[in-house]
Amino acid sequence: MPTLTYPGVGRRIAYQRRLARMTQQQLADAADASLGAVRKIERGERNPSEDMLEAFADAMGVDAAVLRYDAEPTRTSVHAALPALSAVIATYDLPEDGPARPLVELRAAVTEAARWRLAAQYTRIARKVPDLLAELARAYHVASGEERAQLAGLLVQAYRSADAVAYKFGAHDLSARLVDLMRWATPDAEDSLLAASVAYVRTETFFAAHAHAAGLRALEHALDIAPAPGSAKHAAARGALHMRAAVIAGRAANSSAAQLHLTEARALADRVPEDVYYGTAFGPDSVRIHEVSVAVSLGQDHVSRALAVAHEWKPSTELPAERRSGFYIELARAQLWAGQADHSFESLKVARRIAPQHTREHPWVRHDAGVLRRLKRADAESLTNFAEWCAAS
Asked: What is the mean pLDDT of residues 275-280?
């Protein structure tokens, strides 16, 4: 990979690192680089490769374009990639001619994209997944039999990784289209558990539309047709749907339904080890995180439950970064509502350390950081730095 020659790139890396409140050692660790390399790059004695620059950007939760140029672009590279993603899904049934790797290599590429999604590395997905989707579509439309079924399943997984970018970056119409394509490809995969995972993801469209009661009905219908929990994977599929139903019931202000689904999720979680099942983390720890999410969804009268969970327990580093950062983002909101401004800000900073891209793009982070900045003018410098980093409202 050739090195970059953008003037001042080291200076911009150093500035963004300080803005993210990271030491050179922390940046090196997060980007899988050596401390000596970071020091030389920041001093302008060495230029980073493209991959290294992307790793630095991911670690600091900024777009790589910010590190390449002095003026921050009005559109990040993720936003710039969305038209390409729209184009490739517009031709899902008539893909352009071109090569396609063997099934085993395509499966590895889809698995890698899923890891990026769980780690909240959205810039990597935006750069790589559009071409992967085109390649999968070409392979799928010429395949038959068992291979076609496997490629359908891979398409669903790749659409899900692309959807994570679209949804997190506010392209909700594109996200809804990707969910439709997931639902289109699922029957050919002939996998009832995959269908349950798609129902889980489909809930995003209801969150985006604030159609919470309708979303709850859709999830309860998915539960009606989901397989019985006869194995760990089947139990996890049902449990994930119950977790999601609990949260959207909370958003619908349906406390009884929220508690019912949370209880069902907890019972199923006790039967399986914490793991990622069909692209969704599920187990006892994930349910605890959703207890906080449900409490925040139900509103300020339930804040004490969120604070009690956080007082007794913290998520393990073994959990996916996106899920752990979500815990601290929701906890920060509960702490803000409880008048614990200092704790709220600390939780936001923890979320940033865990998954900077997820934290930076989360609308609650932007709103709550803005509120904290107005409430705590005495701590203006660090709050202002954080607010600038996430473009707080």
From this structure: 97
